[in-house]
Amino acid sequence: MSWENEDDSSTDSDDDEVANICLMANDKETNIEVEDKRWKQATTQEDESASFDDGLVS
Predict the structure, then answer these.
(1) Phi, psi for 43 (deg, rounded to 5)
(2) Residues with Cβ < 8 Å from 5, sequence gap 6 or more?
(3) Relative to the CA of 45, which of 1, 18, 30, 34 has its CA 20 to 30 Å away?
(4) How far is the C-alpha of 33 from the C-alpha of 36, rounded, in Å?
């Protein structure tokens, strides 16, 4: 079996570029998910401490 453009090195670099773009997009998505999770945890902790403080204030 022979591959089309077997001697064309630009195909390899194009494939590498696509792979790098996919990795960068995945990293960005992962970072957004982590930041979103941290934000939710922080706001949940703030809400819980506010509720706790409200209970102590007379």
Answers:
(1) -70, -30
(2) 11
(3) 30
(4) 5
Q: Considering the chain, what percentage of its residues have pLDDT values greater than 70?
A: 60
Q: 16 in the Ramachandran plot: left (φ > 0), alpha (ψ -120 to 50) or beta?
A: alpha
| Phi and psi torsions of 5, nearest 5° | 60, 35
Query: Is a pLDDT exceeding 50 seen at residue 1?
Result: no
Do 11 and 4 touch, CB atoms closer than 8 A?
A: no
Given this model, what pLDDT does residue 6 score? 56
On the CB side of 20, how many CA atoms lie within 13 Å of its CA?
6
